[in-house]
Amino acid sequence: MFNGTFEDIVAKDDGFLRGPFGSALKKSLFVPKSEDTYKVYEQGVVLEKNSNIGRYYISKDYYENNMIRFTVKPGDFLVSCSGVNYGAIYQLPDKIEPGIINQALLRIRLNNYIVDENYFLYYFRAYIVNVITGGTGDSTIPNFPPMSVVRSVKIQLPSMEVQKKVGKFLRNIEEKINNNNKIINEMEQMAKTIYDYWFLQYEFPNEEGKPYKSSGEKMVYCEEMKKEIPEGWKVGYLKNYIDKDKGGDWGKEFKESNYNERVICLRGADFPSICGQEEVKAPERYILEKNLNKSLENGDLIIEISGGSPSQSTGRICYINSNTLKRFDLPIITSNFCKAISLKNKEYLYWFYIQWLKLYESNIFFKYEGKTTGIKNLLFDMLCTDYKIIEPPENLIKKYNSLVSIYFDNIQKNKKENEELIKLRDYLLPLFMNGQVGFKS
Fold it and tell me: Environment class of residue 159 by beta-carbon count within 10 Å: exposed (0-12), middle (13-18) or buried (19+)?
């Protein structure tokens, strides 16, 4: 058992190092990337857990004369030291660009004779970060405490043998989560790629199973869209596919009067956790029993109709399938900043979802926004009745939906597995750290 301080478990020379003053890394010093430049590692690397993020570089001369002390190397831990995500930690992988930390990061180099790297990562998340960030007051933009406070944090460690076993076990869980996230990303990209190939490039399979357009099949000029489209396709509107919609509900934070039906409430901010890689942080709320008819069902789509920002339009979208519903033990509703829609045909679900997503990513919805009391609102009805789309034949939409449905089902299954792994990791973490759970020799 080791008892000491944080300072005792890091390398003696620059085990802790805050980034240089901001004035030492002014934008005027940045240069285009080349063979002789050094990357400036920013907070985004830590927050996105991606060492490839970065857009700023300094020259070799400036690095060697002024910044060499702030060099990063594989295995270094970087900690975010400012903003709402301060305390986030990330370990640099084996292969990284030569570079330095910026002013918003803390670099930690461990004494590997005392502490195992994997164990430290989880020990930091479970204990150290809470001690460091626990007494910073109520500043709206919190910052790390002085380094003297960080250095003096009390540290207790089990034997190196136990550290290695615990660290390896927890790292294996995290690697499984990361692998699932890669699969999630690849599956959605495949669905998008097939959509582009079939509905934008018109290379869907013809009767012989060959790509339609490049096989010389008939294309006709569409005056309304000012381009050629496959014969038999027509121009229509989003409204043609929507059957009905239901509003959202925010309810109450706690049981109150007749607000006693507990539900999960999905906001626009939760959409990436439903369809993408982020962890679910959707709140539980209490609503009236009569409003349970707003519960989401297999085949529903949720659209954010209020919110956005100057650089992000309203109109984010999220799909609900049967495996989405299995991820939750409670009914799911959406907030009153969103609305849920049901399609006339559930076999159009993923085609409609990807089409809407493409429009959102193309910034089309900025043209269909109004403002009330400073909040942007999507002019949903106007958009659905005004914006022209190219309508493929019904059988092709169904064929696409059938082809990609396995991707979206597996996305949700992987999301559910990740949630179970995260619960297991977070349950075991404090038990490992305080010695309540261990490994047999």
Answer: exposed
